[in-house]
Amino acid sequence: MNQRTAVAQGVGALAPWQQYICHACGYIYNEADGDPDSGLAAGTRFADIPEDWACPLCGVTKGDFEIYEPPSLDTLRANAQGCGPVPSAAQRHQPGVVIVGAGRAGWQLAESLRATDAELPITLVTVCAGDVYDKPLLSVAMARQLTRETLVRETGPDAARRLNLRLLAHTHAISICADAKQLRTTRGTLRYDQLVLAHGAQAALPAPLPAALCWRINHLGAYLQLRTALGEVEKSGAKDVLIVGAGLIGSELANDLALGGHCITLLDVQAEPLARWQAEQAGQQVLQAWKDLPIRFMGGMKIAKVEKMGQRIRVSTECGQQFDADHVIAATGLQTPSRLAQSAGLAWKNGIAVDPLTLRTSRAAIHAMGDCITINGQASRFIEPISRQAKTIAAAITACAPVPYEARSAIVRLKTTSMPLTLH
Amino acid sequence: MHPADLPTSVTAAPVPTPDALLSCVRDIAQGPLAQLVDAIDRQGHYPQEVLKQLASVGAMSAHLESPAGSGDFFLAIQAMAEASRVCGATGFMMWCQAVCGLYLQQSGNPALMGAVLQAHVAGRGMGGTALSNPMKSYAAIESLLLKATKVDGGFVVNGTLPWVSNLAKNHYCGAIAAIDGAGGPSREVMFLLRCDAPGVELRECPSFSAMEGTGTYALHLKNHFIGAADIIAEPAKPTIARIRAAFVMLQCGMAVGITQGAIDSMWAVEPQLGHVNQYLEDRPEAVQAELDALVVRVQAMAQTPFDTSTKFFIDVLDARAHGAELCLRATQSALMHQGARGYLMSSDVQRRVREAHFVAIVTPAIKHLRKEIARLSAEEMPA
To answer: Which residue of A has its CA nearest to B341?
Structure first.
């Protein structure tokens, strides 16, 4: 070895280690590590590798390698931003609209969407079976002798087929990843382009009323369970039913179950039923209508305790009264579950706060409708607004001409078959 | 032994800052652990020395209360993630060690909270958790496999547990047995099960995918006596109710680390393969954004690890499920990103696919999580 070569090697040894990448397979030869399996010691310069050496992964030769400089992550990120997925791929995987809730609001929206767009993918997620029914009929079902078969207008699977949508029944929606546009459920995670929350409200149960002892009748499933538990008066006799709360739902249920032959005790903290419509003397009228029915109304009653006593349930009031009953029903108002809204960071004001004209939530791709929303802090849990809300949201989602929503005060028709009342 | 009798180096060990701890864990993970990861995966090597090093820097005890104050669950999860980013099996063993420490500390039993816990924290004692079966039992998925009979001064336990990890002859684990009793509500005892105790036998398991190096054995118990000194909780249910959210939450460290490792692998091939990889779903930026959002969620939960509300537990179960789903997608995508070279048995991306499968099926598996969330979300009605 002449002196010149030795100097060159000495200089070379001081130079930083280089990396070389295989064109064929991407294997990276790092001079620092060498390739011990092929007999190249750590520190072997690429230039010193014999020409018959082969890539340890794919077998190509040295000539297929070139020098490699790992780029910085920032550079990679900057480059990656320029190339989004190709449009055809996006269409193939179009997630479409996901609706949470298969009550009237959810189905109504599905109908409105399908009316304007035959192709739009729609997924409906619901905790219940998804059957289509009219909830107000639950308040008169006993007097009219309505059964499950007559209450259900269309089964969930039938409605899903007719509207060409995917129904995920018996599925809990758990959280929303708003940035990634995903709805997490107990049957997997759904992507969405547009999400509509129509999951309604659920019974608010004051602390002294344990869920395991008190029925809440806010959907068909619970109502049918109660009917099964009550049995038929002709076969198993009349039952003592205690209803806590004499608002609209409590009064309607009291009326219907009494017409069905059961003995009703109706309690409320207010002095008379339907106290919200006191100015219209609704309470006096309804008590008059009930005078020949087995309904005992007692006002000024605040529940202190509910406990199981053998086969019966004992309800104690703060004023020291005790009532024993076969069944207890709580009709103590509704509240909107906050889980989904919270997970998406949606604005909240006694419910999911939506824009009064568009029904959009505080997130662009999420609308809400029905019992779960509030407009200027006010919930309006009635049937009439729902179809108008569905038209507004469907127009926005299908990019039709906007249909602004108009919030109106509702007119309530009390379904006490013994004496119908219209309340404002 | 009273804590005051211990050498000060044990009781008054300086508490590193979170950054210092994570930096130590990163050095161990990317140094000695990275050297061993192939042997752990393919030869079933149990990385005892690395685990002891990780313990000694506080990586598996950051969540425990110490004289310096209450534990930092998020730090424990981050430490687990740093190791899992390199080796998911090691991340899993860190979780085993971490929850076992939690059992000891939450036991309220002076015999376990003194020298035993100190040795455990320092990594001189190593342990696992045999609570897969009991957790499924509490979620009404299966029944308890160990049976305890009350005897003078303690219990005699019989039964076999499949697949308990981070074990060796001189290790231990937290276990739960159903107490035989005439009628009444079911009652269980939770105890420290020492692998070298009389009546305890470790049995080899068949080979595992990705987890062969995790010291996983079947535990066979025959008339094994446990005395008061080894009781963690009796009855066990209140303790389980208190720690179950923390137990599940800590597992998020594995998912976070494996996902991050997968993202690293996607970026590694971007210069050569970006021109074709752009056509793939779950690109590194999108996965990173989803992971970051999940980590923010986990960080918030880690502030209240002992919240016993149903709402909180559902949040934790959902985050854990999200972690499992995300690491399945991320590791799958990383393999797609690397292409043929990712398909080699020596490739870390295909190992990570197997690690992600483990995160998805280890108790609570994705399906268990969903079933439990559904059960806890259902509206309760009169029977």
So the answer is: A25
